[in-house]
Amino acid sequence: MLLWVAAALLGGVGALARFHLDAFVELPSAGEFPLGTLAVNVLGAFCLGLLTGLSLASDTMLLDGTALLGSFTTFSTVMLETERLGEEGERRLGILNLAVSFAGGLVAAVAGWILGSVL
Amino acid sequence: MRRRRRAQLQLAIFAGGAVGALARAGLARAFPWPGHGWPWVTFAVNLVGTLLLGYFVTRLQERLPPSTFRRPMLGTGFCGALTTFSTLQIELIKLARHGEVALAAVYLLATVAAGLVGMYLASVLTRRGPR
User: Fold this and answer.
1) Degrees (nearest 5) of the Cα angle B24, B27, B29?
2) Which candidate in B53, B71, B89 is best for mutational testing of the A interface (most A CBs within 10 A)?
3) pLDDT tens digit sequence for B24-60
4) Chain-chain contact of A18 with B79 (C-beta, under 8 angstroms)
5) Which among A4, A17, A76, B101 is least buried, having the fewest CB atoms inside 10 angstroms?
């Protein structure tokens, strides 16, 4: 029971942290490219890679990985921002967003995993 | 007054995020992914969360009078937390390490394709639907 209360709380914290980092990155750039979500997702992928590399206990992983970082990073917003770029005639920016998000996320997750394995 | 609104906004995101994360974590525990084969839970939550976000954002921003807390709670909070990007990346790496590189590629492409088509359809259908 306590585990799930903690998971919910950490999920809330993850969403709130995403909101703040997104706003922090978006504010000065204010361009069409969704840099805020990209920053959140790449950072979150690195951190989850790190946790995975550390081979933590299953409950710790559920709380820090699944609840906190899973909630911090987001897939639906990437889809929303990419689809809206397409609707606004910025299809190339949308494709660029997908490519940079997934390539960046993958590289970050691998880098975090390697770092976590040697720590 | 502004500080109070800001506090309410953060509470809305926190509450939505808590529920979204709890749903995803519960499913992940109920149907654990063994590290190989199709990651059904992540695939499903990402698709469902994307459809819901398309519906919420289109309806709340284009169809209904502006509301301060519904979009942050349902969109940023709930859908943002129900779907996940980092877990998807880890699953791709685990699949590749397990020798299932082709499955990883198909999983990634299917997730993105379903997400984009889902977002498009949810938006278009919501615009056509009743106010």
Assistant:
1) 110
2) B89
3) 999 999 999 999 999 999 999 999 999 999 999 999 8
4) no
5) B101
Structure tokens at B43: 């695939």
Arithmetic mean of pLDDT, B3-30: 95
Q: Are A113 and B15 a contacting pair at CB < 8 A?
A: no
Interface pTM, i.e. ipTM: 0.95
The confidence score (pLDDT) of residue A32 equals: 83
Which pLDDT band, with edges at 50, 70 and 90, does B5 fall under? confident
- Which residue of B62, B85, B92, B108 to mutate against A (max A Cβ within 10 Å)? B85
Show Cβ contacts of residue A65 under 8 Å, excluding neighbours closer than 6 positions.
A48, A51, A52, A56, B86, B87
Contact A7 B28 (CB under 8 A): no
